[in-house]
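Researcher: Next sequence.
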Amino acid sequence: MQDFGNILHNQVLLVSLAASLIAQGLKIIIDLIQNGKINFRVLVETGGMPSSHSASVTTLATCVGQVQGWDSTEFAIATVFAIIVMYDAAGVRQAAGKQAKVLNQIVDEMFQEHPEFNEDRLKELLGHTPVQVIVGSILGVAIAILLGPAGLLL
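Model: Next structure:
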């Protein structure tokens, strides 16, 4: 049970999780500005501005660099992990979303004459745009600089 207490004192972990929560909170604010109403669904939907995945992994990498050193193996691992996550968010999942859109169009066209066909549509918004990933990563570095182990606000 003492190990669980140690987890709760891991500042790198806590700041990384905070970055994700801050990015998710910003999604609500940005969606409110764009659409004029609060939409809590953005908290559980994929995509959106900024990318919380990018924010959390860049915070993680930056905090690891602050603690372990910028030339450490741990920083290298965290950085490569961050690059893979951000590439996946903007590349692979975005491409899967485009494919889902095409498949939905095909199904719509093929089954116009057969309204009894009632399959769920594929989710089309799966990933992030490159801008959402970049803004998320900038947010992540800023949060690490402000709240991380070598943070300005602590």
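Model: The two ends are 27 Å apart (CA to CA). DSSP finds five helices and no strands in the chain.
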